[in-house]
């Protein structure tokens, strides 16, 4: 009985390994997801890396927070 369980386990691992190898060797690279509010690269330019997109999003959030803080400032009554 143990031998049958061991053979089943090895067979399952073999199937998972073959599927993983097939997926890794497919050669299709996943496109970077688009980030709302970030401009897409122009035709002919290399797509932005995830790091570049993250920095752009951080800058946009900072600018939005700064603009909101400026809008919330109340005039002094002095």
Describe the protein in words.
By secondary structure, this protein is mostly helical. Helix content is 59%, strand content 0%. It has helices at residues 2-24, 50-72. The longest helix has 23 residues, at 2-24. The chain is elongated, with a radius of gyration of 26 Å. The mean pLDDT is 78.
Rg measurement, Å: 26 Å
Unreliable segments (pLDDT under 50, ≥5 consecutive)? none
Shape: elongated
In DSSP terms, counting alpha (H) and pi (I) runs of 4 or more, how many helices? 2
Helical content class: 55-70%
Order of helices and strands: HH
- Main sheet properties: none
Count all strands and give the number: 0
Average residue-wise pLDDT: 78
Q: Could you tell me the strand content as a percent range?
A: under 5%
Query: Structural class of the helices, strands and pairings?
Result: mainly alpha
What is the CA-CA span between the terminal residues? 89 Å
Task: Explain briefly what this protein structure is.
With 78 residues, the protein is an all-alpha fold. It is built from two helices and no strands.
Topology of this structure?
Layout: H1 2-24, H2 50-72
List keywords for this structure.
elongated, mainly alpha, 2 helices, 78 residues
């Amino acid at each position: 009985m143990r031998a049958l369980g061991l053979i089943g386990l090895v067979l399952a691992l073999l199937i998972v390994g073959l599927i993983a190898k097939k997926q890794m060797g497919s050669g299709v690279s996943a496109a970077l997801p688009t980030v709302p509010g970030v401009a897409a690269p122009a035709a002919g330019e290399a797509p932005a890396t995830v790091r570049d997109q993250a920095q752009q999003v951080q800058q946009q959030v900072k600018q939005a927070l700064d603009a909101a803080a400026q809008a919330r400032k109340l005039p002094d009554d002095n």
